[in-house]
Amino acid sequence: MRNIAKKIISFLSKSELLYRFSKKIIDYHRNENNCEIETNGELDFIKKNKKEFKTIFDVGANIGEWTRLASGIMPEARIYSFEPSKNTFEALLKENFSNKVSLYNIGLGERNEIKDFFTHINNSTLNSVFSRDIKDDGSKQDGA
After folding, report:
1. Is residue 123 a contact partner of residue 91, using CB atoms and an 8 Å limit?
2. Whose CA is closest to 117, among 126, 8, 97, 64?
3. Residue 122 phi/psi, 5° resolution?
4. Percentages helix, strand, coil for the chain, rounded to the nearest 5?
5. N or C terminus: which one in the chain shows less Cβ crowding within 10 Å?
6. pTM
7. Which residue(s) pair with 80 in the sheet?
8. pLDDT in tens for each of the 144 residues of the chain?
9. In angstroms, how far is the first alpha carbon of the chain from the final one?
10. Any idea where the domains of the chain sit in the sequence?
11. d(CA 95, CA 102)
12. How far apart are the C-alpha atoms of 121 and 142, rounded to whole Å?
């Protein structure tokens, strides 16, 4: 009986489908990996504390959705948006932000260094200096 249980557990532990399903349940339970600003608490935090924010850094601005939201809620705040991807930064430049928003085509980190930048697809929020296990062979590397 114990050997059968071990074989079942071994088989299930190799299942990508079971892994993804289990991860979704755990993430939901812990409210992790929730990028939805309306449900993850971030929007409530911004609204409750908006008078406190004078200077804001949007690090990894992507195409500016968060910058636009923040500047709408806190129009007096000075916002500095940083986006390391050249292609994504070009899309960010096309946005019509107020003069309180400054855009920079660089990444921020704890050291002054050049790092590889992994892109999934243009303007994806999955693009990162961290190599992600994306099940798509369209990934490539850009120097950032």
Report:
1. yes
2. 126
3. -55, 135
4. 40, 15, 45
5. N
6. 0.67
7. 57, 102
8. 788 877 777 777 777 777 777 777 877 777 667 778 888 888 999 999 999 999 999 998 999 999 999 999 999 999 999 998 888 899 999 999 999 999 999 988 888 988 887 777 665 666 777 776 665 545 444 444
9. 55
10. 56-144
11. 12
12. 11
Handedness of CA 44, 46, 49, 50 (dihedral sign): negative
Distances (CA, A) of 98 to 20, 31, 41, 79: 41, 33, 26, 10
DSSP labels, 67-112:
HHHHHHH-TTSEEEEE---HHHHHHHHTS---TTEEEESS---SS-
Report the candidate in 85, 94, 92 with the shortest Cα–Cα distance to residue 122: 85
In this structure, what token pair is assigned to residue 88? Answer: 């994504």
For residue 96, which amino acid is it? N
